[in-house]
């Protein structure tokens, strides 16, 4: 399928109204009934419909955008790797050529010195390029002199020793030789690690029971793969974990990581806030005024609690250690939120009492 944004002719940040308007315009212009002489009208009309189905659904659009971004990142990384490989090949060829020229220059100088000694001249034959000349020609004038100065400094020579040294040709500059030799070693034995594919991001919906029991869960990815991981202590709604090597897989690259965000499924009885659980307990008006003992459901079965007199709907009762497992070896609490309820049908006595209380008349 082609890029749905291109099919509808909208920008990637287009809102729902723009997408719908573009779909209507495109669908009307390519409808098969209006283009009976065009054999491809039906195909184009179906393609526009498919593009609209992807972009009108926020979840499907989000998944498509994520996949498109990953694909773009992979292509950029591949192009960068290809360009780096081309540069490496060119640098390797240049480095080997430099070494070859240096070797030839050194051989020519040795031959020239041998001939000059045999002729008693004491100097090299004119026209022979020295290794210093090769380095100066390749890296710029003065490079060989800088290399020789650095080599002498590294060997601990003093200024006096420099002045007393015999006036003869120095050895091949160490800096240039080591530089080019290290380049060749690098190109012949590359040590850079294989690039890693981009990470994948997903949301895994889990049950409260699984979080409490720290069960293993199975999650299905967008590429139809299934991954399994345990729910450990310290995990709650919104927790993010990274599964090494379980993400995007691309030929020639190390697998990326899978970054999973835990989403707790809606529970009919309990609400998760951090490591605490919250539940509601309806109580009658008389129990709120007079107080009572009652039972409340918890993740570990019913528990008896005491409701103090004059307990309103803004009050809570905390049961410690009945929440989720935290990362410190403990557990959160179960917070019982009181909800005062009236009777199902109006009560005349209660109504009269409330009326007298409003007007300051007490019986």
- Low-confidence segments, given as residue ranges, are 157-163, 165-176
Level of helix content?
A: 40-55%
Helix and strand composition category: alpha+beta
- Within the largest sheet, what's the order of strands? 6-7-11-10
Number of strands: 11
The Cα radius of gyration reads 40 Å
Ends: how far apart? 79 Å
Q: H/E order of the elements?
A: HHHHHHHHEHEEEEEEHEEEEH
Overall geometry: elongated
| Tally of individual helices | 11
Strand content: 15-25%
Instruction: Return the average pLDDT rounded to an integer.
Output: 79
Please outline the major beta sheet: 4 strands, mixed
Written description of the protein model:
- With 363 residues, the chain is α+β, with helices and mostly antiparallel strands.
- The protein is built from eleven helices and eleven strands.
- The chain has helices at residues 4-8, 16-30, 41-56, 58-119, 131-139, 143-154, 159-164, 174-188, 208-213, 285-290, 348-358; strands spanning 200-206, 216-220, 226-230, 240-243, 258-264, 271-273, 276-284, 292-298, 301-307, 316-319, 334-341.
- The strands form four sheets. The protein has a four-stranded mixed sheet with strand order 6-7-11-10.
- α3 crosses α4 (58-119) and α4 (58-119) runs antiparallel to α5 (131-139).
- It is elongated, with a radius of gyration of 40 Å.
- The two termini are 79 Å apart.
């Amino acid at each position: 399928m082609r890029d749905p944004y291109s099919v509808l002719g909208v920008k990637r940040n287009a809102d729902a109204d723009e997408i719908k308007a573009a779909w209507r315009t495109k669908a009307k212009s390519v409808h098969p009934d209006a283009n009976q002489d065009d054999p491809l009208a039906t195909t184009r009309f179906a393609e526009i419909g498919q593009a609209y189905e992807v972009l009108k659904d926020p979840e499907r659009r989000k998944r498509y955008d994520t996949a498109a971004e990953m694909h773009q990142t992979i292509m950029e990384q591949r192009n960068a790797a290809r360009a780096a490989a081309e540069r490496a090949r060119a640098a390797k060829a240049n480095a080997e050529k430099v070494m070859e020229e240096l070797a030839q220059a050194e051989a020519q100088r040795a031959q020239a010195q041998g001939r000059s000694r045999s002729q008693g001249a004491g100097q090299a034959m004119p026209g022979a390029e020295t290794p210093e000349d090769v380095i100066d020609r390749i890296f710029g004038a003065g490079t060989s002199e800088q290399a020789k100065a650095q080599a002498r400094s590294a060997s601990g020579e003093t200024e006096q020793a420099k002045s007393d040294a015999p006036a003869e040709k120095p050895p091949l500059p160490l800096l240039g030789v080591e530089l080019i030799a290290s380049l060749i070693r690098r190109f012949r034995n590359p040590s850079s690690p294989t690039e890693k594919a981009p990470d994948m991001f997903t949301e895994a919906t889990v049950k409260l029971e699984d979080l409490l029991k720290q069960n293993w869960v199975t999650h299905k990815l967008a590429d139809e793969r299934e991954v399994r991981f345990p729910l450990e202590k310290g995990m709650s709604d919104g927790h993010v974990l990274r599964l090494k090597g379980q993400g995007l897989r691309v030929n020639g690259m190390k697998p990326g990581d899978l970054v999973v965000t835990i989403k707790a499924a809606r529970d009919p009885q309990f609400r998760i806030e951090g490591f605490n659980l919250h539940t509601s307990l309806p109580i009658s008006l008389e129990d709120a005024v007079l107080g009572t003992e009652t039972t409340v459901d918890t993740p570990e079965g019913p528990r008896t609690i005491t409701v103090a007199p004059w307990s309103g709907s803004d009050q809570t009762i905390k049961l410690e250690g009945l929440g989720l497992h935290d990362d410190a070896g403990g557990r959160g609490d179960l917070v019982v939120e009181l909800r005062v309820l009236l009777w199902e049908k109006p009560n005349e006595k209660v109504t009269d009492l409330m009326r007298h209380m409003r007007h300051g008349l007490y019986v």
